[in-house]
Design brief:
The complex is a heterodimer of chains A (477) and B (496). Chain A has helices at residues 56-68, 164-180, 221-240, 286-294, 300-308, 315-322, 325-336, 341-352, 371-382, 388-401, 405-412, 420-433, 435-439, 448-458, 465-476, and strands at 6-17, 72-73, 76-77, 80-83, 93-96, 103-104, 107-112, 115-128, 132-135, 141-144, 151-157, 193-203, 213-218, 249-253, 258-261, 274-275, 282-283. With 477 residues, chain A is α+β, with helices and mostly antiparallel strands. Classes of the chains: A alpha+beta (477), B alpha/beta (496).
């Protein structure tokens, strides 16, 4: 059988770090990138006698995520200890959630090749991150515990994903959501968003699941796609050859482009879960739940529906604008400041986004052209003060010089000339300078372009092309 | 100058606060006693003489400067070596923690220090608080000051023996299944286990998190109450600590001394389940006599029933081993404490460190706990134990509908001899039979001396209160103490 004869079945476990100030159970900073072992304290190091105390900001973040995907929020839930020995795990158990996750169910929606997809969630639960082992060239192993105790929420999907592309888009949708909610930065390269995939194949039409493998170590969207694609091909080849898939954990080796089985010893875990006795149950009151629900921002898919529906943008443009909360917020602010919706979308997509490496910078207070300034420029074009051609140059100057469009237009005398008398004089001068072309105009109307160009040149580009057209047609016709 | 032998903590504090004697002089006397007497008893794992002098001098300086030197001004204290002390080695009497110097202070010891208490040193114990005889210390056994062939009880053996032998005026311990009350009974001193959450566990090295109760030892009920009053109260570093205001424990202990019938209107429950065959006849007789004394103090004695008592030991050993196997997982040689030399792989580092570092009892409990929690068996063991625990707690709730406090023996037997029970862990575990249920229920209980055997070994009386009912326990115990002289008896000095 070839690949088309199999249905691909994928379930994903996404770990999103929550961007709280301090760690989930202690006071040291949860920020990324500090010198090794400087963001630590006795609790996150699991020193004897220390006790975890829950950072409630973490609960709020998980509840917001749960509400955003329509989960059922468990208003009373518990933490549990998950045991395994590893040097990066200071207590040799991880405080996680087991039989009482904070969120049950839910759906992550996104678009794939223009179609809306909805992947069901099993659960979302909270846990602490582990530290990081570093193996030196000298054969020594070091451990950095800065990451130990950074809050994580694990988002577990049902086996609803049907392709590697869809898996990557699903993870991207979670990243967008996490960023919209302001609860994490979703950076796969820095590990603040991580993903494991359970992959299996079954003959098309079959209802029972095939044996799955778990793929780990995919630290970019491209990795997710490539790893799953490779694993699907590998499994298909095994099945085609009459073999059986072994249930195992496989690591993606991005350098070699293959998945490889972990040693079976590393997989034989009995986590010996039991309720964490040092933490009382987590309680989310009705009032707290209502407040968190009221505080939810407009979510990406709702924004998409608004832009592509009532606002009237193309699906393509709407998709670009909702990709990051900061783009959409920038766009909405420009429209609120008076820019017409479609024109503003073009400016944001073609000019503004082209000038920032990371679109999230549009949320910065010192963005060179704030949304209101963009609206000012678009309005000048819309009311005919500035020609569309000059507007692009003006925008460039706004971006580099941090000046408003009105300021640049006034200072440089760039206002579009629509005044009939002034333009007529310019047209007459041009016609007089080109008698041969003028006389052949009737037989060759294509010369209109030549004359308009000449008038624009004569007026330094400030002439209103529509008005010039009318005057020339009258004078030459 | 006060003679510190037999001195109470409150008498020392009163004298220091009043300027009758210097904290420094008091500390020197205790340090001298430790130097002379502790070699034969083994109470201390570490004596911090310089630190003690510095702390005592600070108390004296505060008083001279007109500042309040604190409720426990100049009281020499011993801390069970399970309490983390900043800058001072803390080992839980285990090889695996040898050399561990915490960079932080437990909430309890910080509060005692802030109240003017003067820590003399760290006290011996059963390794990781696992044991009932102090024979499980990896360093040395503690000897019972009343008879050196006998155990002091455990696991807080050093804490109890050091009070009996006047090697400190107040001490602290932890009680997971009786580890304060049983050694208090066997050494003839007062031992107090408060309500779960009443005292912060921050900085107290965990054995079984849901059962560990930090508490106090003193020569008198008021001493035990005075230390508790300082230690108790909510702590932002312990999520299981209780926010309720701290009771007036010393006042409750003193109230028991007032009038001819200080317990008038108090109903004391006596459960048949705590007087079972196998109990030592002298212990039973002493406890029955104590009940008569309490009746003469005005209390009415009522029968209560705690029908699930027979499940307490089994329940306790399921819960405590499960939690212990988890809490002791962190001792792996990676970050602190013992690291086995010459390990060639990570797995070997783990197995050698833990193999060399833990004694037989922690190993036994880690294995039992790992078994209890293994996949597929959780419901049969741990899940069932949690349900039994609920039933045991419900027993107490029902009993307290008909009484204000429950009075029982603390230990069914007086101190036993070294080696007598070491070969039989089950027999050793039964030493806790009368003390574990209050831990499972999280309710307060204390032990106080109520007599001596003909051989001269102390006998303990246990008073159990409802949740946050420390005050009624102190009141009952204070009344009994005021009518008896047991607490005034001192063990022989320097004799065997």
């Amino acid at each position: 059988m070839s690949l088309e004869n199999y249905e691909i079945v994928i379930g994903l476990e996404v770990h999103a770090q929550l961007a709280t100030k301090s760690k989930i159970f202690s006071w040291s900073s949860a920020a990324f990138g500090a010198d090794p072992n400087t963001h630590t304290d006795p609790v996150c190091l699991g020193l004897p006698g220390t006790l975890p105390v829950l950072n409630t900001a973490v609960v709020d973040a998980a509840v917001r995520l749960g509400l955003a995907v329509g989960s059922k929020i468990r208003q009373r839930c518990r933490f549990a200890r998950k045991h395994y020995f590893y040097p990066d795990l200071p207590k040799n158990f991880q405080i996680s959630q087991y039989d009482e996750p904070i969120c049950d169910g839910g759906t992550v929606k996104f678009r794939l090749h223009g179609e809306t997809r909805a992947i069901r969630l099993t659960r979302i639960h909270l846990e602490e991150d582990a530290g990081k082992n570093i193996h030196t060239d000298g054969g020594k192993s070091l451990v950095d515990y800065n990451r130990a105790g950074v809050p994580l929420c694990e988002i577990v999907s049902e086996p609803d994903v049907r392709s590697a592309d869809e898996a990557a888009e699903y993870v991207r949708a979670i990243r967008t959501l996490v960023r919209y909610l302001g609860i994490g930065d979703g950076n796969m390269e820095e590990g603040s968003l991580r993903c494991d995939a359970n992959v299996s194949l079954r003959p098309r039409g079959a209802t029972a699941f095939g044996t799955k493998t778990e793929i780990k170590n995919m630290n970019s969207f491209k990795n997710v796609r490539d790893a799953i694609e490779h694993e699907v091909k590998r499994q298909a080849a095994v099945l085609d050859g009459g073999g059986r898939i072994v249930q195992e954990t496989r690591l993606w080796d991005a350098g070699r482009g293959v998945t490889q089985a972990m040693r079976s010893k590393e997989q034989a875990h009995d986590y010996r879960y039991f309720p964490e006795p040092d933490l009382p149950p987590v309680v989310v009151t009705d009032a707290a739940l209502a407040a968190l629900r009221d505080g939810l921002p407009e979510l990406p898919e709702d924004r998409f529906a608004r832009y592509s529906g009532p606002v009237g943008l193309s699906q393509q443009d709407a998709g670009v604008l909702v990709a990051e909360r900061e783009i959409a917020a920038y766009y909405d602010a420009a429209v609120a400041a008076g820019a017409p919706a479609k024109r503003a979308a073009n400016w944001v997509i073609n000019e503004v986004l082209a000038r920032v490496a990371d679109a999230r910078r549009l949320g910065d207070a010192d963005v060179p052209v704030p949304p209101a300034a963009l609206a000012g420029l678009v309005t000048l074009v819309e009311n005919g003060t500035l020609s569309g051609k000059l507007a692009k140059d003006v925008f460039t100057r706004m971006w580099t010089e941090r000046r408003t469009a009105a300021d640049i237009v006034a200072a440089e005398g760039l206002a579009q000339v629509s005044d009939g008398g002034e333009l007529e004089e310019a047209c007459k001068r041009v016609i007089a300078a080109h008698p041969a072309e003028a006389s052949s105009f009737r037989s060759n109307p294509k010369l209109m372009g030549f004359f308009v160009g000449a008038v624009m040149k004569e007026t330094g580009g400030k002439a209103n092309p529509k008005a010039v057209n009318e005057i020339l047609r009258r004078l030459l016709g | 100058m006060i003679d510190v032998r037999g001195a109470t903590a409150v008498a020392i504090a009163d004298g220091v606060r009043a300027g009758k004697w210097l904290a420094r002089d008091v500390a020197e006397q205790y340090l001298d006693r430790i130097a002379r007497l502790d070699g034969a008893l083994g109470c201390y794992l570490l004596v911090d003489a310089e630190g003690a002098r510095r702390r005592a001098d600070a108390v004296d300086a505060a008083r001279k400067a007109g500042r309040d030197p604190g409720a426990l001004a100049g009281v020499p204290l011993g801390f069970k070596d399970i309490f983390c002390t900043r800058g001072i080695e803390t080992t839980c009497a285990s090889k695996v923690l040898r050399g561990f110097v915490p960079p932080y202070e437990s909430t309890v010891t910080a509060r005692l220090g802030a109240a003017g208490g003067v820590m003399l040193g760290k006290l011996n114990m059963d390794e990781f608080a696992m044991g009932s005889s102090n024979e499980n210390s990896s360093v040395k056994p503690v000897r019972n000051p009343w008879s050196r062939e006998h155990v002091p009880g455990g696991s807080s053996g050093g804490s109890a023996a050091s009070i009996a032998a006047s090697l400190c005026a107040g001490s602290i311990g932890t009680d997971t299944g009786g580890s304060i009350r049983q050694p208090a009974a066997l050494c003839g001193v007062v031992g107090v286990k408060p309500t779960y959450g009443r005292v912060s566990r921050y900085g107290v090295i965990a054995f079984a998190s849901s059962l560990d109760h930090p508490g106090t030892f003193g020569r008198t009920v008021e001493d035990g109450a005075a230390l508790l009053e300082v230690m108790a109260g909510a702590d932002p570093l312990d999520a299981t600590s209780i926010p309720a205001p701290v009771g007036r424990y010393r006042a409750a202990a003193r109230a028991g001394r007032e009038g001819s019938e200080p317990l008038k209107g108090v109903r004391l429950g006596v459960p048949d389940e705590y007087f079972q065959p196998g109990m030592d006849a002298e212990v039973e007789a002493a406890v029955r006599a104590a009940l008569d004394e309490l009746a003469r103090a005005g209390a009415s004695i009522v029968k209560v029933s705690l029908p699930h008592t027979k499940y307490a030991i089994a329940t306790y050993y399921l819960v405590c081993t499960a939690e212990a196997s988890s809490n002791l997982a962190r001792y792996d040689g990676i970050r602190y404490g013992l690291r086995a030399a010459d390990a060639r792989s990570l797995e070997e580092l783990y197995t050698s460190t833990r193999g060399e570092g833990f004694g037989a009892e922690p190993k036994r409990r880690i294995m039992l706990g790992a078994y209890v929690l293994r996949a597929g068996y959780y419901e049969a063991y741990y899940g069932k134990a949690l349900r039994a625990r609920r039933k045991l707690a419900d027993d107490f709730t029902a009993a307290f509908a008909g009484c204000d406090a429950i009075v029982t023996p603390t230990s069914p037997v007086p101190a036993f001899k070294f080696g007598e029970r070491m070969g039989d862990p089950l027999q050793m575990y039964l030493a806790d039979v009368l003390t574990v249920a209050p831990n499972l229920a999280g309710i307060p209980a204390l032990s106080q001396p109520c007599g001596f055997t003909r051989a001269g070994l102390p006998i303990g009386l246990q008073t159990i209160g409802p949740a946050l009912g420390e005050e009624i326990c102190f009141r009952v115990a204070g009344a009994y103490e005021a009518r008896t002289k047991w607490h005034e008896r001192l063990p022989p000095e320097g004799a065997s």
